[in-house]
Fold this sequence. Notes:
The chain is of the alpha+beta class. It has 1 helix and 5 strands, in the order αβββββ.
Amino acid sequence: xxxxxxSGFGLLEAVVALTLLVSGTLVLYSWIxxxxxxxxxxxxxxxxLRQRQLAEQWLDSLNPMSAPQGQQRLDxxxxxxxxxxxxxxxxxxxxxxxxxxTPFRVALYQVELWLRDxxxxxxxxxxxxxxxxxxxxxxxxxxAGD
Length: 146
């Protein structure tokens, strides 16, 4: 029997190697978990952004003078609610060059918006200023009675 240097790994070396391996694995899993959480949060933000853009596109067609309040179901299970309050009385639009009167009247409105999901959870609440317009009936100068 030889009493010099021991051959192979001892128990202490194996424990140290396993400890290093487990520590490295825990760091790696922690990093992956953080990345997955960040990805999930980013996907949620992207979904909310798409929902807001959809609501903004629909809002572009809203005329608060003809629909001062209401509710509209949008795609993706969204519900847009609004209530408009006039900030001024309707007034005639400035005449065209040459003094030609236009048939439109306009007013400035404050529009309060609520964007909700299917469960009724509030996604966004905001205030906007919008211009409402209406058209006066055309005056054909008595042509209907001729």
